[in-house]
Amino acid sequence: MPTSTPPSTRPPARPSTRPPASATPATQPTARVRGFGRWTAEPTAATVPLIRSRLRSVLDGWEVAAEIADVLLLAASELVGNVVLHAAGAGRLRVRISLREGWLQLEVADGAPSLPRLPHPRDEPDQDAEHGRGLLIVHLMAAEAGGQLSFQADEFGKSVRVRVPVA
Predict the structure, then answer these.
(1) pLDDT by residue (tens digit) across 13-46?
(2) Which helix (H) or strand (E) holds 146?
(3) Percent with pLDDT over 70 in the chain
(4) Which residues face 4 on adjacent strands?
(5) How many CB atoms are located within 10 Å of the residue 65 CB?
(6) How are beta strands 157-165 and 148-154 bridged, if at all?
(7) Would you tell me the crossing angle of helices 66-86 and 134-144 to the nearest 10 degrees?
(8) CA nearest 105: which of 62, 136, 153?
(9) Distance (Å, rounded) from C-alpha 32 to C-alpha 83?
(10) Cα 11 from Cα 30, distance rounded (Å)
(11) How far is C-alpha 108 from the geometric centre of its chain's CA atoms?
């Protein structure tokens, strides 16, 4: 059963403009954290829809635009699913969502040290493969929304982050 920290119940003020992708931190308006939620769970197949449902509730509460929410919901499904498939033996998975300074960040972490491999968009996909396209789809959707996908490894394992601007 997943454990969680309830997300902030204060809905954020809707930003009037989206920060340009080229903006530096010095040119972006500073704002306090407007929302945060986190969950931990055993990496099982049942965890994927549960995390997705909880994330949907948080995004709805924050009044995130449907297009951006869809990117994060797909990302959560793919990233949590990847932990279930590839890192189930590496301990509990951790999912965090934050909203601050006009950006939403979804992070999925596990105890496995190996970083995922992002296929090149021009690679010819194996038509018979059941797996191997999820990270590429998440990367392309995040980029189309003005965001990015990133990976980080440390002594505790790895985390995969999707960061997108609030529309």
Answers:
(1) 333 223 333 333 333 333 444 788 999 999 999 9
(2) none
(3) 71
(4) 39
(5) 13
(6) antiparallel
(7) 160
(8) 62
(9) 31
(10) 18
(11) 6
pLDDT, one tens digit per residue, over 71-88 is 999 999 999 999 998 887
Place of tokens 């021009």: 122
Closest to 39 in 3D by CA, of 78, 6, 74: 6
Give DSSP secondary structure letters for 68-133.
Answer: HHHHHHHHHHHHHHHHHHH-GGG--EEEEEEEETTEEEEEEEES--PPP-PPPTTSPP-TT-SSS-
Long-range contacts of the stretch 144-150 (C-beta < 8 A, 24+) = 145/67, 145/68, 145/71, 146/18, 146/21, 147/71, 147/103, 149/75, 149/118
What is the DSSP secondary-structure string of 20-86?
A: PTT--TTTSPP--EEEEEEEEE---TTHHHHHHHHHHHHHHHTT--HHHHHHHHHHHHHHHHHHHHH
How far is the C-alpha of 144 from the C-alpha of 146, rounded, in Å?
5
